[in-house]
Amino acid sequence: MPTAIITGITGQDGSYLAELLLSKGYKVVGVARRASTQNYERINHLLDNITVIQGDLHDQGSLLALMEEHKPDEVYNLAAQSFVPTSWNQPALTGDVTAIGVTRILEAIRYVNPKIRFYQASSSEMFGKVLETPQTERTPFYPRSPYGVAKVYGHYITVNYRESFNMFAVSGILFNHESPRRGIEFVTRKISDGAARIKLGLAAELRLGNLDSQRDWGFAGDYVQAMWQMLQQDQPDNFVIGTGETHSVQEFCEIAFGHVNLDYKDHVKVDEKFYRPAEVDLLIADASKAGRFLGWEPTVSFAQLVRMMVDSDMKRHEKLILAEKHA
Ligand code: NAP
Ligand code: F7E
């Protein structure tokens, strides 16, 4: 039975990847940082089948101990300070976790067993102010936030350990991927939750920032499949993963509110508070390399994704309302 370590197990992707690896017969060890209150909402349903270990990307010793104790075959580094706006408020912390944290894991692997296969969660935010459209593995980077800058470091240190120490270290350059488990402050989930709350009379308006920015949005469940496939190749490499379609925040609003028979124009208010110091205007992936080498392709369309998220938030709020009534 192969063993996989997942950092960021409590996050959106960590929970989907854990499900996938369990279905493939892996022993799954998740790394979670210590908090005064446990935040295992996304993995509660998996706790009988996975091992969760305390560890932190700030802490080299905890990562070394992890590799020594669990002797993984594969390590997926999904942990990061991943919210772009926070990266302007906490740029040094973002750099320490999202950039240097990658080196700490690579060092732990190199010292304990350099044969361990390593996946780094790189990001389309590295393309930032895009120098080419669509973006491929060869498009130069131009990050626009401390988060994007940190991810560029994480990408290159992964490539560097591959080239310096002959390690099986891959960088998956994933475009935005969403799901009902997406963090509530990211725009897609903020909209699906907002539309549900407004439909159910729990709120009157939804305040958003730039409605014109365009993203290549896919379903997280599809994207964790690509992560696993990258580690099953003969050679380590870099892969872009995305749908090849781009849509604006406004289009997301139109479909989300339309799905519950509302017009977003009646409820969405633009609030400059949510504008960013430097914006990424447009992202669109050319994932043809992943198609050729991994046989990967997305299975969920943009409209299906939006409706899936709104349906899930409607159900969640309806349950909460019912529970309150019976309390
Ligand atoms: P997420 O939901 O924000 O999850 C991030 C995870 O990292 C959480 O489990 C978080 O733990 C953990 N973490 C944060 N700081 C840590 C630290 N110091 N030590 C250990 N763990 C720490 O992110 P996601 O959407 O699942 O994304 C997974 C990865 O892919 C991230 O690296 C992200 O930057 C990258 N990525 C995401 C996308 C996307 O569209 N989702 C696209 C490209 C790349 P807590 O639960 O305790 O906060
Ligand atoms: O913003 C605009 C905002 O925060 C998307 C992370 O997973 O994907 C994610 O980064 C767009 C931006 O995601 C609001 O200005 C408008 O243009 O959902 P987001 P992101 O910044 O693209 C990449 C690939 C990652 O790697 C990251 O970890 O939506 N927008 N109004 C808004 N964004 C937010 N959050 N809130 C608003 O009210």
Can you give me a brief rundown of this structure?
With 327 residues, the chain is an alpha/beta fold. The protein has ten helices and 13 strands.
Between the first and last Cα atoms, what is the distance in angstroms?
46 Å
Shape type: globular
Radius of gyration: 20 Å
Give the helix tally: 10
Mean pLDDT: 98
CATH class of the largest domain: Alpha Beta
List segments where confidence is low: pLDDT < 50 over at least 5 consecutive residues. none
- Enter the CATH topology name of the largest domain: Rossmann fold
H/E order of the elements? EHEEHEHHEHEEHEEEHEEHEHH
Structural features, described:
The protein has about 325 residues and is of the alpha/beta class. It folds into two domains: about 5-175 and about 215-240, 3-Layer(aba) Sandwich (Rossmann fold), CATH 3.40.50; about 185-215 and about 245-280 and about 300-325, UDP-galactose 4-epimerase, domain 1 (Alpha-Beta Complex), CATH 3.90.25. Helix content is about 40%, strand content about 15%. The protein has helices at about 10-25, 60-70, 85-90, 90-110, 145-165, 185-200, 220-230, 250-260, 290-295, 300-325, and strands at about 5, 25-30, 50-55, 75, 115-125, 170-175, 175-180, 205-210, 215, 220, 240, 245-250, 270. It has a seven-stranded parallel sheet with strand order 3-2-1-4-5-6-11, sandwiched between helices. The protein has a two-stranded parallel sheet with strand order 7-10. A two-stranded parallel sheet has the order 8-13. Helix 1 links the parallel strand 1 and strand 2. The structure holds NADP nicotinamide-adenine-dinucleotide phosphate and ligand F7E. NADP nicotinamide-adenine-dinucleotide phosphate binds near residues 11, 81 and 177.
